[in-house]
């Protein structure tokens, strides 16, 4: 009988300990959150931080500056969380991009491909059409 009464008391004690530990974890998390909010409050007192936030969040510019806005394919401005699509390796005309051509010239500099024909020894006259 004594063991049963001690077992129920031990169970209640362990439940209370677990509850107390979870409350202490909540208190620690709340204190960390309060500290972060106080740091942010101090940042808002800095004029440079306020200026940076107005530029970023509202898109404001200083007098004399030029503001730009990226427009999507649908003609609407892109929001801050959107990103542009990946640049394809080829342009619409099927030509390589300028930086690809430049890098290719760096790679073959001093080591030209051998399959290209050399200079022509004789120049041939164009064929005349029969109508002349």
Tell me the major beta sheet. none
The structural class is mainly alpha
DSSP summary, beta strand count? 0
Helix content: 40-55%
How do the SSEs run, as a string of H and E? HHH
Number of helices: 3
**Beta-strand residue fraction:** under 5%
The overall pLDDT average reads 82
Q: Write down the Rg.
A: 37 Å
- Terminal Cα separation, in Å? 128 Å
In terms of per-residue confidence, which ranges show pLDDT below 50 for 5 or more consecutive residues?
none
Described by the principal axes of the CA atoms, the overall outline is elongated
Account of the 3D structure:
The protein has 3 helices and no strands. The chain is mainly alpha-helical and about 130 residues long.
Give a quick precis of the structure.
By secondary structure, the chain is mainly alpha-helical. It has helices spanning 2-43, 47-58, 98-108.
Keywords:
132 residues; mainly alpha
List the helices and strands and how they pair.
Elements: H1 2-43, H2 47-58, H3 98-108
């Amino acid at each position: 009988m004594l063991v049963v009464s001690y077992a129920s008391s031990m169970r209640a004690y362990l439940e209370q300990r677990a509850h107390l530990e979870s409350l202490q974890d909540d208190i620690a998390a709340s204190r960390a959150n309060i500290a972060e909010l106080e740091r942010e409050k101090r940042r808002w007192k800095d004029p440079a931080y306020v200026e940076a936030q107005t530029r970023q969040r509202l898109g404001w510019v200083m007098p004399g500056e030029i503001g730009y806005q990226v427009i999507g394919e649908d003609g609407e401005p892109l929001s801050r969380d959107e990103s542009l699509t990946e640049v394809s390796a080829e342009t619409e005309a099927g030509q390589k991009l300028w930086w690809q051509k430049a890098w290719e010239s760096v790679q073959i500099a001093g080591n030209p491909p051998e399959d290209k024909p050399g200079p022509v020894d004789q120049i041939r006259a164009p064929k005349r059409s029969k109508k002349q």
